[in-house]
Amino acid sequence: MTTAQQWLDRISALRLPRPFKVMNVCGGHERSIAMAGLRRALPPGIELVPGPGCPVCVCPEEAVYQAIRLALSEKVILVAFGDMLRVPVNVPKGEIRSLEEARAAGGEVLPIASPREAVEIARYNRDRRVVFFAAGFETTTAPVAAMLMEGVPDNLSVLLAGRRTWPAVAMLLESETPGFDALVAPGHVSTVMGPEEWAFVPERHGIPAAVAGFTAESLIAALHSVLRQLIEGCCFLDNCYPELVRPGGNSAARRQLDAVMEVVDANWRGIGVIPASGFALREAFRAHDATRLYPSFADAARKRAGQMPPGCDCARVVLGRIYPDECVLYGRACTPRTPVGPCMVSDEGACRIWWSSGVRTARKRVLEPSAS
């Protein structure tokens, strides 16, 4: 087996004709890259850009607000994956801005680690209404679909904020300035959906792509693959995670997703609506759709407030436009203890990952000359 150091030696031996930017589209990848110090280990001329790999970061602000209001106004038991509890919404100072604060104010908000826990809580509390706030990409949404397929208690409903990963990358590639030369595609999503979802990158856009796992060896192998493709002037989709990623993905999980969910246009926080990028419950499962069972709380004021907080650059971080430490709030107003934006909350958020790896201050910006 080729070691990480051997892969690095192979990359160092490549003759790069120019600098290259490679985007990784997975919070798990970004964590592995940061914790291994991979950026420092690479030769000059290779940039690794974190992309839209954090579902917590792009969960619509209005969905988080809806969950907070349900916990406080409808007196439901609100359950959510742990990262969601600290995501802030845009409200005036002094108002409740997260599910964590809603719990402190008397709302019954419980963190869970899997959909099975939501079912167990609903069964244990038959006389209470339970809402499962389910935000996540395909790897999280597939177990939610399986949960509903198996059958859930009548008192359990789902506030769904599921998103599909590849449409965000497609949006970037179809823009005038994609911002990267090659793509390292997410291993977990490919395990469920199959690597074929990423074939559009080389086939439609002529950009090399490689699916990677989460070890340094797999990540560096994928990086070596796309760099060689760039140098040799060819492009294809390479699978550098064959241990788990197989053609067609997980057929059972895909069948359950198709049976329970329909694909819809969906809003991404700070980015806007991306076509065919979200999941919604099919009609047969709408009896468990929290958006039908409870008031929406989505008035006009909420729509105006739905972007990132003032001064927060999380949206540009998610899109790979800037690095986390280029946000003016990074390490100043925004830290894991006092997060302003969602990228500093989630363990899959690039800002939180960079902070955890030791990057504690914002880099100095070079002021542009005035127009006068």
> What is the number of strand segments?
11
The helical percent reads 25-40%
Number of domains: 1
Biggest sheet, spatial arrangement of strands: 2-1-7-8-9
How far is the N terminus from the C terminus? 60 Å
| Uncertain runs | 366-372
CATH superfamily: HypD, alpha/beta domain 2
Query: What is the N-to-C succession of helices and strands?
Result: HEHHEHHEHEHEHEHEHHEHEHEEHHHH
Shape: globular
If helices are DSSP runs of H or I spanning 4 or more residues, what is the number of helices?
17
Rg of Cα set: 21 Å
Class per helix and strand makeup: alpha/beta
CATH fold-level label: Rossmann fold
Largest sheet: 5 strands, parallel
- Report the β-strand fraction as a percent range: 15-25%
Entry summary:
The chain is of the alpha/beta class and 372 residues long. It has 17 helices and eleven strands. It is globular, with a radius of gyration of 21 Å.
Describe the structure.
The protein has helices at 4-13, 27-35, 38-41, 55-58, 61-73, 99-104, 115-124, 138-150, 166-173, 187-193, 200-205, 216-232, 251-260, 290-293, 300-305, 314-318, 350-356, and strands at residues 20-24, 46-50, 77-81, 108-112, 130-136, 156-162, 182-185, 209-211, 237-239, 261-268, 272-281. The protein is α/β, with parallel strands linked by helices and 372 residues long. The model is unreliable at 366-372 (pLDDT under 50). The chain has 17 helices and eleven strands. Strand 8 (209-211), helix 12 (216-232) and strand 9 form a beta-alpha-beta unit. It has a single domain (1-357), classed as Rossmann fold (3-Layer(aba) Sandwich). Helix 1 runs parallel beside helix 12 (216-232), helix 2 packs parallel to helix 17 (350-356) and helix 8 (138-150) crosses helix 13 (251-260). It has a five-stranded parallel sheet.
